[in-house]
Design brief:
2% strand; 293 residues
Length: 293
């Protein structure tokens, strides 16, 4: 009779556990399909996608180079072409137009893309306004819930796991200390043992459900699929070199130290020469008096 009670209890618990896993699989799979469909339906402009990847300046420079507005040499120095100096030929897109105006403010001096991206406030303001406008048009994209980081759900999961382990240990011990007698009890004990084996793999099943229904970074995957205007390998290398240069090619900007910094440098220099003079004086005194202590 005990084996029959244990078998029924184990079957009920196993059905509850795996039923919950099945519902979780269905819900997460449905949510995943919705997220992927929402991301696939996004209408992303190329420069908006580049801005989301923090590559707006490189994409704008590539567009200007293909349009004949800009030229970048192997050292990363960006210069305007004859077409770029013509005021009546602005690019249609907002980000390339902002970059072209930024380079024009430094013409005829060479300037790097990194310098403009870091220190040109007008260019930064226009790019920020463009991205804010485009971000406002994006629909809300649901996220896959991460219950592991939420304290209430984490506590409930820990409590459920502890109760399941306690139930498993109690049933296993009772099956061992109360050997079955007769065919019916042996069949019930076998069912209970099979249920315990199924419950043993329940945590692995939960991890499998989570892994198979995870959509990852769907928006990031979509952005990585969006490419910049096509450049050859040499031009792409020149653009990357210029974007990584933040202090060599400054255009018409020059670093002018403050007067306080100049005064401090002069004081430090005077103090250094004072130490040098004092050393020479002490050396001269020693030569004049070789018998001294």
């Amino acid at each position: 009779m005990l084996q029959l009670v244990l078998a029924v209890s184990v079957v009920v618990v196993a059905v509850a556990v795996y039923g919950g896993l099945g519902l979780r699989w269905w819900w997460r799979a449905r949510l995943r399909r919705g997220i992927l469909a929402r991301v696939a339906a996004l209408d992303l402009e190329p420069y908006h996608a580049a801005a989301l990847k923090q590559e707006k300046t490189e994409a704008a420079a590539a567009g200007l180079m293909l349009g004949g507005y800009l030229d970048i040499d192997g050292e990363g120095a960006a210069r305007l072409t004859e077409a770029g100096r013509e005021a009546g030929r602005p690019p249609v897109e907002a980000v390339p137009a902002a970059l072209l105006e930024a380079v024009r403010r430094h013409d005829p001096e060479p300037v790097s893309l990194g310098w403009i991206d870091w220190y040109d406030e007008d260019y930064q303001a226009r790019c920020f306004a463009y991205r804010s406008e485009r971000d406002a048009r994006l629909p809300a994209i649901p996220r896959m819930p991460d219950w592991d980081g939420r304290q209430p759900w984490a506590c409930c999961g820990c409590v459920g796991f502890v109760l399941l382990v306690c139930f498993w240990l109690i049933v296993a011990e009772m099956l061992v200390i109360a050997p079955p007698h007769g065919l019916r009890e042996w069949a019930a004990a076998a069912v209970a043992a099979a249920g315990l084996a199924a419950l043993w793999f329940a945590p692995a099943g939960g991890r499998a459900v989570r892994a198979r229904t995870e959509c990852g970074d769907a928006l990031g995957d979509r952005l990585r699929a969006e490419t910049h205007p096509a450049l050859d390998e040499r031009q792409r290398l020149h653009v990357l070199t210029s974007a990584g240069d933040h202090d060599r090619w400054r255009g018409v900007d020059r670093f002018v130290p403050d007067e306080d910094d100049q005064d401090d440098d002069e004081d430090d220099e005077d103090e250094w020469w004072g130490w040098v003079d004092a050393y020479h004086y002490r050396a001269a005194d020693h030569e004049d008096d070789p018998d001294g202590p």
